[in-house]
Amino acid sequence: MQTTPTGPAAAPPLLQVQGVTLAFGGVKALTGVGFDVQPGSITAVIGPNGAGKTSLFNTISGFYRPSKGAIRFQGQDITRIPAPQRAKLGLGRSFQNIALFRGMTVLDNIKLGRHAHLKTNVLDALFYLGRARREEAALRRDIEERIIDFLEIDHIRHAPVSALPYGLQKRVEMARALAMQPQILMLDEPVAGMNREETEDMARFILDVREEWGVTVLMVEHDMGMVMDLSDHVVVLNFGQVIAQGTPATVQADPEVIRAYLGAGDVGDLRAKLRASGHTTTAQGAA
Predict the structure, then answer these.
(1) In a domain, 3, yes or no
(2) Under 8 Å between Cβ of 188 and 20
(3) What is the DSSP letter of 114?
(4) Can you give the pTM of this predicted structure?
């Protein structure tokens, strides 16, 4: 087996973002953005507000089409493939603002995540014929025995989403994304607005979905303690451009990252905050 000075030869990237530029009229949201996501990794995209993180997620998942560059998934150019087809290929995502059907139950919301993979045709579904019945039974069994149990939401499976607190709604949205059977789980600010206990739970679920299910994770997140604790690779955006990327330790020490977050502020102050935040998250996770 071929090796490099740092260990075994790296596997081919699962996702490649190659020189992506996105513009709205005369305003560039992204300029020449490029990075790789390795299989089995947790990759975090960070940056100040307005840096282009959600625009990048929308471009990867197919809601926006870049004016330049390419998105490659498992070596295939998917730049012009529509969003539903990308979901079918294995890109599942959650959203910064919860995008659940509030009048439906938790179980029905999660089942919608499998829609792209169902083979039932209109006639089967209309008359609820054999294939439709079998698919429905298999889908419900998989969701109830794997996803609902994994995310510890059995007690709310029949509750309407509108009746749930914010933290549980975020967990249901993650469940719907997992129901898509993703190879890459894209999480847009998974712990935004959560309290400490909810954040700890979500961090544990993210680690477990990688370790137990083998799902690669790509996330946008502002919680620096969580990012530094969980991530294998960190990509930093500022004004739509990648200003740094690498391991959490490398990114923390990068002067460009310091300037992006603090301007002309004290470098030591940011480093101290990151260390304190990371220590707190680690200690809480171990408690």
Answers:
(1) no
(2) no
(3) T
(4) 0.80
